[in-house]
Amino acid sequence: MSSFSAVTTAYRRAWARRRVFVPIYIAVRLLLVALIAPGVAVTVNLAVKLSDQTALTDQAIAAFILSPAGFVAAIAVLSLFLLAEVFVFSVMAGSLRMGEPDPWRAGSSAIGLILSRLPALFGFAVRFVLRVLLLILPFAAVAALIAWWCLTEYDINYYLTFHPPSFWIAVVLIGAIGLAMAWVLIRRLSAWALSLHLVLFETVHPAHAFGISTSRMEGKRGRLKIELALWLGVRFVIAALIAWVAGLLFAMVPLQGASHLRLALTYSLLVAAVWSLAGLVLAATALGALAVVLDGFFEIRTEEPPHPEPRSLRIPVFAVVSAAAVAVLVGLWFGQTLLERVQAPDRAEVIGHRGAAALRPENTMASVLKAIEDGADWVEIDVQETADDVVIVAHDSDFMKLAGVNLKVWDATMEDVAGIDIGSWYGPEYGDERTPTLRDVLAAAKGKAKVIIELKYYGHDVDLENRVIALVEEFGMQDDIATMSLKYPAVQKMKTLRPDWRAGVLAATAVGDLSGLEGDFIAVNAAMATPGLVRSVQAAGKDIYVWTVNDPLQMSAMASMGVDGLITDRPAKANEVLRVRAEMGPAERLLLWLATTFGMSIDTQAMRDESP
Fold first, then answer.
1. What integer best gives the mean pLDDT of the chain?
2. Where are the alpha helices (DSSP H) in 152-220?
3. CB atoms within 10 A of CB 63
4. Where are the transmembrane segments (predicted)?
């Protein structure tokens, strides 16, 4: 049989058993959410407590992982995630090998077998993670060295925006390193293809499974690589076809006139739901096909795993009734919570990101004044110190992205700054824009809008916090400003220097309990925002802001979630969304919330820089 025939046969066999594979896949995924997720959360929280903080953000995460305790915790978390995937695949492989046609019996039998081997499976997951990390480490080190060599002369945002030759050199070299790493990984992973089967079905110790698998796969690895590539290709083609059909259906959304909004959203959500269901069926079928492919390479050399007696698998009637009652109560609670959320008045304030960065060149007086004109409650800016000790408004470490000038902010004097045009990149009409000072922004905003001052640190700050404090107190704006930073010790320092001032933590990524960090608010990437995070932060007496929210549907979803601030490049658009939401009934708000939940968006202008 050719490799292509073997793969198509595997998909046909998996599709023939869809009534077994799909329910098992869904049930096991739900089971893992209930079992593995809490385990991961407990492990992460225990690990974070070793750092003497309730949460770690951004650079602190990397520093912690490189510590001995952090490395052990990272391996444990990765192993739990891998165990979850191993569990799903093992159930599919076990149900396939048992050949039971009834989904409940097949799933129960397979899960029973896997639970009996759970310690061994976790040991397998830990060893697998360590082996893969050892393979990746040298390639990652070389890639990091290339990035340091090619991408550190200027601020990283310059490279990401303009893609100079050094950027492409780094892309090519790191790409070549990635291909070499992929080749090594494919060689090793194809040799280990039977290691999980050996642990599961032959009770081989995890420490020996990799070596035995390598021996048994001798002479078969080439065929396996071809079949796995074909398996992946078939899955990709089917997924593309499903997406194409969904795209055709989305193109038929009735958008004529505002009166059709409810019909359009209902139709779109129906299409999205069917698309999601099709994707779920494809995922289950493809995983089943993979189990069939790998099973073809495995010849069991011990007795077949025992099949539980069918009668031992029957569920008592009271268990079914109890489960149904719990499901109904959970559904009622969720529905009531959702209804309260969409009915609650919006509490979000509008925060202009670097002014109104979608409509004017960022961090300029033109941008600040536009944000004030557009009714922003807050204007958010970034500040650093110059060589002559002036606090200026600048995000990057240099002027390369905005002006093509290779000058670090901490090396620049105000005379240098006065000669650098930071507006022409946006449009010739802004050619007279120069980097403003914090004094300029405070003077413009006083009595009109509050100001969020993000303290930027690139390792050359001298006395940034005290200089900011002096300027704010000079203008008497203590109650009209807030400070924030990606650097948590800076937030703690500001709270020490001025306990009564608002200060907050800015987090692009985080692990642990953000609500326990010092400060008055947390500003997170919108992708991190969840109802649970919003509730926990607000329950701790803090506000939560989300950035950078420019899509109207996402603005509405964040408002429904109850966030306290929308950090946006489009303050006028955010105010318009909040105004329209105030006029909507619960049904319209619910439809908008569901639309965002299914990943829908309204096209908006792409920003050059999405960083905080």
1. 84
2. 156-162, 165-191, 195-201, 206-216
3. 12
4. 20-48, 60-84, 132-151, 166-186, 228-253, 265-294, 315-335
Q: Which of 74-78, 127-131, 262-266, 370-374 has the lowest mean pLDDT?
A: 262-266
Report d(CA 162, CA 20) in Å as an integer: 52
The C-alpha atoms of residue 462 and residue 105 are separated, in whole angstroms, by 68
Instruction: Give the HSE-up count for residue 375: Cα atoms under 13 Å, Cβ half-sphere.
Output: 9
pLDDT digits (tens, 9 = 90+) for 321-349: 455 555 545 544 555 555 555 555 678 99
Which has more confidence, 307 or 375? 375
Domains of the chain: which residue ranges? Answer: 3-313, 315-344, 349-597
pTM, 2 dp: 0.75
Pairing relation of β-strands 391-393 and 378-385? Answer: antiparallel
The beta-carbon contacts of 505-508 under 8 Å, at least 24 apart in sequence, are 505/57, 506/57, 506/454, 506/612, 507/55, 507/57, 507/58, 508/57, 508/58, 508/611, 508/612
Contacts of residue 197, defined as CB under 8 A and 6 or more positions apart, other chains included, come to 93, 294, 295, 298
Q: Which two tokens stand for residue 403?
A: 């002006």
Q: Is the pLDDT of residue 120 over 50?
A: yes
Specify the DSSP class assigned to residue 538. H
β-bridge pairing 55-57 and 510-512: antiparallel
Token pair listed for 47: 């690990």
Does residue 396 contact residue 370 with C-beta atoms inside 8 Å?
A: no
Backbone angles phi, psi at 399, to 5 degrees: -110, 20
For residue 516, the tally of other CB atoms under 10 A from its CB is 14
What is the DSSP track for 46-67?
HHHHTTTSSEEETHHHHHHHTS
Higher pLDDT, 263 or 275: 275
Q: Which of 508, 607, 600 is nearest to 557 (CA)?
A: 600
Domain 349-597 indexed as CATH 3.20.20.190: yes
Residue 600 has what pLDDT?
58
First to last CA, the chain: 55
183, pLDDT greater than 60 = yes
Smallest CA-to-CA distance from 150 within 162, 167, 173, 174 is with 167
